[in-house]
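In this supplementary section we document a worked example of the pipeline. Step one takes a protein sequence of length 254 as its only input; no multiple sequence alignment statistics are reported here. Step two produces a three-dimensional model, which step three serialises into structure tokens for compact storage. The input and output of this example are shown verbatim.
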Amino acid sequence: MKWNADLYDDKHSFVFQYGESVLALLDAKAGEHVLDVGCGTAHLTNELREQGVIVKGVDASPEMIAKAKELFPALDVEVKDATNLSFTEAFEAVFSNATLHWIKDADAAIASIAQSLKPGGRFVAEMGGKGNMKHMIAVTRAVMQAYGFDLPESSIPWYFPSTAEYAAKLEAEGFRVTFMAHFDRPTLLQDGKQGVVKWLKMFGASFFGNVPADKLEIILEEIAGRLEHYYEKDGEWYADYVRLRFIAVKQETN
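The serialised model returned by step three reads:
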């Protein structure tokens, strides 16, 4: 997927703004070596650097890393796939916000992150959890079918696990899960109804690969219209986000 980094920062800044509370959970100390997996445009990575943390940011998107380097030239960031990090030195903590649900091969990502951590190191993250965007996906599928287009599971780019499912994967890679929460977090969309259209263009582009350009805007507007019942509250529109947040510690090996 090719990302529009400028649109991400301009209209979807809630992604890193909500990540502030995940940083608090990380509780990184000055001098600690921390890896930010899926750093995006690196706003949170830079906050860690400003706190005296020795931080490295990685993201699979060249567009995001290019924007991060433009915004924060002093940061250490590079393009890397989370399923194949391959670092020679281990980190004391790995941090990730709003990224892991984009990685369908969760086992490979967790294994790669485990290899990047020192024994006793912590993995602190937030991602989409089971039920995330269920109304958005269901309405999009219904509208697409009404216009003669399928929305197969293969076109859904996300993996939204339950607490039990993801905890089991972490434990299988030698982590001890010390905290995990699964919670609703209605998320304000800028620009109301048009915010739905912009969200779909930003994050759901893979849904519409077979839709001709002359029908795309009509379909997007209809999706947004049908979502009003679920999303509009007192003049504001809120997406049906459900989050999974956790702390896991890499166990010492005997």
